[in-house]
Specification:
Elements: E1 2-13, E2 16-28, E3 33-37, H1 44-51, E4 59-64, E5 67-68, H2 74-82, E6 84-88, H3 99-109, H4 114-127, H5 143-155, E7 161-165, H6 173-189, E8 193-198, H7 201-207, E9 210-215, E10 218-224, H8 225-230, H9 235-241, H10 251-256, E11 260-267, H11 275-282, E12 286-297, E13 300-310, H12 313-325, E14 328-334
Parallel strand pairs: 3-8, 3-9, 6-7, 7-8
Antiparallel strand pairs: 1-2, 1-4, 4-5, 9-10, 11-13, 11-14, 12-13
The structure holds adenosine-5'-triphosphate and magnesium ion.
Adenosine-5'-triphosphate binds next to strand 1, strand 2 and helix 1.
């Protein structure tokens, strides 16, 4: 769907060359929601803006639906770009135009016949749940409503791809959730591939299928959100994940613990099977939870627990084997003393 090969973007400034994107390779599959995370300045926006050629890449290629956008010019490039919608953190609505006119503007830009515009605007407003706001000006809308207009405008010309640059960063948590649900609906019902930039792991957890982590213009980790949340590799990824799944236990508490400390991870439905309580009953050990939660990553459970096991060392070993036998991934953090 989207194939990015050896993509680099350099900016020439008075102070010299600034690297925005550095040799990035990524493939994004049709119909998925792909998240890009990274700290400020990592190159996320530069990458996204290269995907629709809002920025001209310095080198590399970007193929969308099999066509290399970097090779297109004029009319062909304009047409290809109409099939890539984009929404932004600050919406960029035209304040002198009503909600309906803002959306119609995008249709006019694509030379949509006049008689089709009116009905298409109504269709789009219904899709984003803003039918009653057609004749209202942007200043009279809440942030979430403004973003809904932004989404309607981005969908006006039936894009196959929707790029979202921090689309929920200016919104409160509830509004964020409602916008994410709308994006998911668009993804599923219209089969639009979504590439979404965020610095919030909760956004990724909520709607992304796969993700990439960027640092200094490069992709340092890439994979399924579930796999990355269960087993992050790069230090930066671990840092991001820790905002959602963290094992930080105060030193003072750990010092008081005399038994063995283990970390247990359950992937998928086994997370809800009560394996830990079965273990404690069967092997004459005492289990003491230090930390833990079951997270749901797109409705698939991921159980992560830090616990102390007290008992005879042989029983502790049997307990660990038993949990592993039932699908747990166990790591011994410290043996008992
Ligand atoms: N138009 C530009 N001219 C010069 N340098 C730029 C330009 N746009 C981006 N950069 C530089 O490129 C690098 C990547 O910037 P980019 O905006 O892509 O990061 P980002 O990950 O989107 O950050 P943020 O989370 O703050 O939006 C930064 O060092 C930035 O200063
Ligand atoms: Mg940015």
């Amino acid at each position: 769907m989207i194939h990015i090969e050896n993509l680099s973007k350099e900016y020439k400034t008075k102070k010299g060359t600034v690297i925005g994107v550095n040799q990035v390779n990524l493939s994004i599959t049709e119909g998925e929601v792909f998240g890009v995370v990274g700290y400020s300045g990592a190159g996320k926006s530069s990458l996204l803006r290269c995907i629709n050629l809002l920025e001209q890449p310095t080198s590399g290629s970007i193929k969308v639906n099999g066509r290399d956008l970097t090779k297109l010019k004029g009319e062909n490039l304009r047409n290809a770009r109409l099939k890539i919608g984009m929404i932004f953190q600050h919406f960029y609505l035209i304040s002198q135009k009503t909600v309906g006119e803002n959306i119609a503007f995008a249709l006019k830009a694509a030379n949509t016949p006049r008689r089709e515009i009116k009905s298409r605007v109504l269709e789009l407003l219904e899709m984003v749940g803003l039918t009653e706001k057609k004749d209202v000006y942007p200043a009279q809308l809440s942030g979430g409503q403004k973003q809904r207009v932004g989404i309607a405008r981005a969908l006006a010309n039936n894009p196959t791809v929707l790029l979202c640059d921090e689309a929920t960063s200016a919104l409160d948590p509830n509004t964020t959730l409602s916008i994410l649900r709308l994006l998911k609906k668009i993804n599923r019902e219209l089969n639009i591939t979504i590439v979404l930039i965020t610095h919030e792991m909760n956004v990724v957890k909520e709607i992304c299928d796969r993700m990439a982590v960027m640092q200094d213009g490069r992709v340092v980790e890439e994979g399924s959100v579930y796999e990355i949340f269960s087993n992050p590799q790069a230090e930066l990824t671990k840092e991001f994940i820790s905002s959602v799944v963290s094992f930080e236990v105060p030193e003072a508490i750990l010092n008081k613990v005399t038994g063995s400390i283990i970390k247990v991870l359950f992937k998928g439905n086994v997370a809800g099977e009560g394996i830990i309580s079965d273990t404690v009953q069967q092997f004459d050990v005492r289990g003491n939870f230090l930390h833990g939660a079951i997270e749901y990553i797109q409705e698939v459970p991921l159980g992560l627990f830090l616990m102390e096991l007290q008992g005879h060392p042989a029983n502790i070993n049997r307990s660990i084997s038993y949990m592993e036998g039932r699908g747990g991934l166990v790591e011994v953090i410290r043996n008992g003393h």
